[in-house]
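Researcher: We're reviewing a set of sequences before deciding which ones to prioritize for further study. For each one, I'd like a predicted 3D structure that I can look through quickly. This is NAD(+) diphosphatase. If possible, include the structure in token form so it fits the rest of the review sheet.
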Amino acid sequence: MVRTLPPFRIMSQSLHTTIKDLQKDMYYGNEVLNRVSFLREDTEFISKSLFHPSTRFIFFNKQNPLVHKNFANMLTIMTNGDKQVCVDQIEPGQSNNLGYTGNLQFLPLGLMNHVPHWKEILHTWNEDNKNMDKSLRSKGKPTFLFMGLLDESVGLDINSLKVDCELNGDEKYLDHQGRYQGIAYYAVDVSSNKELCRNLVHFVNDTINEKFQTDKTPEENGVFFTHSRKHFLTFESKEASLFSQGAMFFHWLTTNKFCPGCGHPTIPIHAGGKLYCTNEETITANDDTAAAAAAAATASTSDRPNAKSACPVKSAPVSNVSFPRTDMAVISIITNTDRSKILLSLGKRHFTSKMYSCTAGFMEPSETVEIATKREIWEETGVTCDEVNVVMTQPWPFPSNLMIGCIGVVEFNGTNELIHLGHDNELLDARWFDTSFVRKLVYPEQVTEADKDFNPEGIMIPMGQSIAYNLIKMCVDEEDENNKEEYKL
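Model: Here's the predicted structure for NAD(+) diphosphatase, in token form for your review sheet.
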């Protein structure tokens, strides 16, 4: 089915009625997999899942995902084996459980039998990962990330798959130790292997041509590694979260190739979940001189029980690996006590679009969320805010942020609410808008003919996929329901 999009796609978030609902279905932040992160260190599980026919793979080139953009499900998700059942989308009219519905994957052919050298690539990475081999990042080798299991905890109907397996005599899901049952997902960074990049693009394109009996080029079928936010912001909700997880992990892995303690190369261990320094030099305890380090290099650690790593990261008493990094940023909707006013600001890069949004900025070390929010509000707008509440969060993979959404309530007293843009000079404008005006921006379909000229400046608010939009909408809706126990959206 060819993908057709309206000029503005209404995101699922805008249909939610409570913050509780929204927190479970935040764009880029859905819980679509059980990450079972402890299994990343289980080499038996990783080996079994890596080669299982049901396992799904999502491919990236420099944090850019492979897509087939002309179709309803844009993110390219491939299986190891042929003719695997479709569990990546809930079928219309079905229950909320994901399971066998009689359909096959959009791309029915698997990587094992149709992509050159795929088995060899899997075997090589599996051995390297098992042995924490220094060559894990060598040129031409893809980087693998175990993302998690699609299992019953996130809606997979295991029973339907069991029935299908019994009827057809094949495996449609992974069963590890009888405890962990589901379908494994991996993200794969293929940036260092251009041949594999080309093979994947042509495999997807050839499959689409055969499926629809066409003879189009990859460009005509929209098959490529995309860098466009236009695509990132129009994924289906589940696809957006899978993209976000892979992109954020690979950004961390790509930008941390050397140990911060000693400068030696690092390798991604535990199926991409941690970074490990490859420095094998040791020094004798209580003797950190260069001479001792040189002498230690010729002797094994087992011969010297007091030896420790020359790398300060590896020799640290708490941890000898590096863990994924997320940059925390606070973003706040600013309002008054009765929600009749909303403060929105215009950033310099949105001058042309006239998009007014929430106040945002990065947290600093030793700040609480509340203090960081108050600081950002004052630094950018000059407004003093004493009441801050955390409402919702959103991963934002550009490149690796967690947006912490807050509501800041300003008590109008003739001083607190005064706007002053001269502190850090980041904004072009900031204004207190009547909530009734903002409501028309949130609900344009409710604007009457008499009010059609309510916005002569052409002011816009952020897109529906963003946490900023949902904070604005929350405040607008709360104006009428201020005394209810649960915020309404």
